[in-house]
Amino acid sequence: MSTAAEALKDFKGFSMKNIPEFEPISPGHRACQGCVEMLGLRLALKALGKNVIVASATGCMEIVTSPYPQTAWRVPWIHVAFENAAAVISGVEAAYKALARKGKIENKNVVFVGYGGDGGTADIGLQALSGALERGHNIVYLCLDNEAYMNTGIQRSSSTPYGAMTTTSPPGKKSIGQATWKKNLPAIAAAHGIPYVATASPAYPIDLMNKVKKAALVPGPAYVHIFAVCPTGWRHDSNIAIEVAKMAVATNVFPLYEVIDGKWILSRKNPKPKPVKEYLKLQRRFRHLTDEEIAKIQARVDQEWRALLERCGVTEETGEKEKGESE
Amino acid sequence: MVEIRLHGRGGQGAVTSAELTALAAISKGLYAQAFPSFGPERRGAPVMAFVRVSEEPILTREKVYEPDIVVVLDPSLMEIVDVQAGLKDGGWLIVNTKSSPREVKEKYGVKAHVATVDAMKIAMEVLRVPITNTTMLGALVKASGVVPLESFEEPIKERFGPLGEKNFAACKKAFEETELEE
Amino acid sequence: MGKRVGMEVSIAAAETIALIDVDVVAAYPITPQTHIVEHLSELVANGHLDAEFIPVESEHSAMSTCVGAAAAGARTFTSTSSQGYALMVEICYIASSMRLPIVMAVANRSLSAPISIWNDHSDMMLARDTGWIQTVAENGQDVVDLLIHAYRVAEDHRVLLPVMVNLDGFILTHMIEPIYLPSREEVQAYLPPYKPLLRLDPDNPVTMGPVGVPEVYTEAKKAQDEALKNAKPVILEAWDEFEKHFGRRYRPVEVYKADDAETLLLTVGSISETAMQAVDIMRDKGRKVGLARLRLYRPFPVEELVSVVKKAKNLIVVDRALGFNGHVGPLCMEVKSTLFDHGIRPYVMNYVAGLGGRDVTVEDFVSMVDSTEQKARAKEPMTYEIINVRE
Amino acid sequence: MAKETGICSWKELALGAAIVTPGNASELKTGDWRSMRPVVDYEKCIKCGRCYILCPDMVYTPRDDGYYELNYYYCKGCGICANECPKDAIEMVEEGR
């Protein structure tokens, strides 16, 4: 049995009955109303408990949790710069390894977590992430993907979806908004041949927590890509944030899956996907799109979904009934 | 202070010869420096290495511009590199060649003293590889006496491990076979 | 007991790091520092050094990884040069601001363009405002000694700042020379184990690197500035202790035949030894020439410099980098500002020498002295010149 | 407000301006951000916990009786809980009413 599968063979997931009460991030943080990025981070860390060390990239989650003299962090946390969370957590992990081996500290099986937004992960931090994944550090890396540079005022990133309006991909006479397709970061992470990669959405909190827990259990690097709805940047009311996240899954815009030891596994089969338009129309960042553009996006989503099914060895016909959570 | 310049081709071990000379000197309680001509390392290209040996601490950090001794590891370099550049008149030019010192002196108009040794032949006989760096050290000692021959034994053995014995043998054989200008 | 060995200086640097028993090394190979990294990986591979060796994908990640490791309480080392240093600068500022006692050897080298792998002090000057303590080696022994000293200073709770040990690329890194390598016991007797004041530990959570709102940023910088200033007595104390343990003495500004010198050369790094020879030659001719060598670059040794320079009529500051301000080299600018503050007004000439691996020779120093004394007599304006430049 | 704005002498700062009081952001009253407040009808509540698990501001905490306590000190009024409640047991009402 390969490494990740071995580590996960007795895996017991969370349910609503056994959610750990400890909140590693305290309330009083300054995230926007309805911030799903914060929710994703909260759930991920709740899954891991107190025995963690967290390295943060510069970004929303850094700035809203740590303006001096208050910190929302109840677990050890370090922020160094924008592009290097993966490198910083590599250093922390290596230090613990060396210090424990040399008998200078007790070996406490600390979980080492690095996280960044999509900009800090897919753009400026991609090199450091790739290095950390390739070197095989025993870390969990979380990408909190809100699909643009929200902290600096909603500028496009390589993770911004096609057609989206941002402050640096404005629609206009000669522009439909973001002109490029979203970078497939989980696939890039998986291409490193690391033991565990997953996509997760706070709209499916138990699934998210389970995936983060699995990421911590596997030896070596693990990558979890979290869909982080941003009402501020995506231009919708905060109360529908989870609805938007659910719709992203229902339309196959953001499919949920795991890659364990290189084996792709669909988390939720979706035999009757909803039209992408249902997802797009919830958000004003897409409101300028014509039916023609929406059809183009639909075609792309369908194509990527088929490719994912193929990777997972599932045919559309055999897609089972949608699996519900215990929620 | 004795200043030595070695000429070789990248990969032939001129830098190693320089290092071993410095290590031999240092092991005898002398002061020494060895350094390459700094730059990217490219196999086959002409390279230089430098050595200084002194009884006093060495302060200078310049390259060697006016060597007392020049060692040429590869005879083909005689045609393409000005190996005599800056060589002191009373110094030594030590060349790996089948030719005699007199032939070299006449052919290249050498003002300094000349020593020659067929290091390639010795290397092939003793080491069975055409690498002349340790061999030429024997010639260096014979011509200049800058360090005693036996001072090379330990550095060579340390550097070459199981092949150290043979390399030192080649060094000794070259010492014996080196022809000095009369 | 330690031993006198013939050894390449880079190898000696790596051997020293093993003697210091660091816990984490994160480094990227860049000429001419490469041998240090290679040998460290070898020492880890063969068990001579029990450390995590992390072959990172860039210098930026090298320093980032060191920051993470140091924040977790590990004794940490890295090494770089030139462009690699330029890439890590962002994180160097952060390492000192976060008060992490990382030690780094920098094989000093020029900056592109044109790309040059050879020695000058462009990278050292790039580092001048990063908040690191900086010392400068003139030979291989200095490298060994200053690395040991660096950890003692960096990890002192009165300091807790990173230290950069400068050594000239190639001229030192690729030089084989006699070096006294101490034993592990000797090093341990001088260098106590590292006890972090704050570290990332789940049992005692701390938030490192928070957002510095305007209400606190100035105070944070003031605290850091004070820490650097307060490091000076500790640096001196650690050198005094070093002398007691190892018998070799280091001072922030070291002098050679400077007492009665009318013309004083000020140099940094390995050219200082060549300059000493030039001084000897000129002294033999009865000329009152002396030399001051900067050993400590950060914090800048103001008092020591003033006391050495105050009697000189002429001062020659040799810069190994350009300042690109159109009027003075970076070292000379700082020297002049120091002298101005203390009302000392020698005739100051600034020579920019040895850029990108250009040799600086004994003759160069002699001609600097000749030319300066001539200009001083002729009351020519004080200026800076690049020496040995082809017209 | 001195504490909240971080005004202190440089001498009082922890090493490297670190914060050594874990989770002290909990002193901050983010409830001030709210213009709508969620009101829970415990009659309708089925203790499913979606309000608790989906709140980005850790406003809800589980109680021994299985219901979830709501803390207005932190609630920013985003309305996710009301929107996601499967029994419509949470209503958003205007502040000040």
UniProtKB/TrEMBL annotation, chain A:
This is Pyruvate ferredoxin oxidoreductase beta subunit. Pfam families: TPP_enzyme_C. One of its GO terms (biological process) is small molecule metabolic process. Keywords: Oxidoreductase, Pyruvate. CDD domains: TPP_PFOR_porB_like. Residues 58-226 form the Thiamine pyrophosphate enzyme TPP-binding domain. SUPFAM superfamilies: Thiamin diphosphate-binding fold (THDP-binding). It comes from Thermodesulforhabdus norvegica. One of its GO terms (molecular function) is thiamine pyrophosphate binding.
TrEMBL record, chain B:
Gene3D superfamilies: Pyruvate-ferredoxin oxidoreductase, PFOR, domain III. Residues 10-176 form the Pyruvate/ketoisovalerate oxidoreductase catalytic domain. The keyword Oxidoreductase applies. It comes from the Bacteria. It holds the Pfam family POR. One of its GO terms (molecular function) is oxidoreductase activity, acting on the aldehyde or oxo group of donors, iron-sulfur protein as acceptor. InterPro entries: Oxidoreductase_gamma_subunit, PorC_KorC, Pyrv/ketoisovalerate_OxRed_cat, Pyrv_flavodox_OxRed_cen. Keywords: Oxidoreductase, Pyruvate. NCBIfam families: PorC_KorC (TIGR02175), PRK08534.1 (NF006321). This is Pyruvate ferredoxin oxidoreductase gamma subunit. It comes from Thermodesulforhabdus norvegica.
TrEMBL record, chain C:
Pfam families: PFOR_II (PF17147), POR_N (PF01855). Transmembrane segments: none annotated. Keywords: Oxidoreductase, Pyruvate. Residues 261-365 form the Pyruvate:ferredoxin oxidoreductase core domain. Residues 19-237 form the Pyruvate flavodoxin/ferredoxin oxidoreductase pyrimidine binding domain. It comes from the Bacteria. This is Pyruvate ferredoxin oxidoreductase alpha subunit. It comes from Thermodesulforhabdus norvegica. The lineage of its organism: Bacteria, Pseudomonadati, Thermodesulfobacteriota, Syntrophobacteria, Syntrophobacterales.
Automatic annotation (TrEMBL), chain D:
It holds the Pfam family Fer4_21. Residues 36-65, 66-95 form the 4Fe-4S ferredoxin-type domain. Signal peptide: none annotated. Gene3D superfamilies: 3.30.70.20. One of its GO terms (molecular function) is 4 iron, 4 sulfur cluster binding. SUPFAM superfamilies: 4Fe-4S ferredoxins. The keyword Iron applies. The keyword ATP-binding does not apply. Keywords: 4Fe-4S, Electron transport, Iron, Iron-sulfur, Metal-binding, Pyruvate, Repeat, Transport. Its cofactor is [4Fe-4S] cluster. PROSITE patterns: 4FE4S_FER_1, 4FE4S_FER_2. InterPro entries: 4Fe4S_Fe-S-bd, 4Fe4S_Fe_S_CS, PorD_KorD, Pyruvate_synthase_PorD. Heterotetramer of one alpha, one beta, one delta and one gamma chain. This is Pyruvate synthase subunit PorD. It comes from Thermodesulforhabdus norvegica.
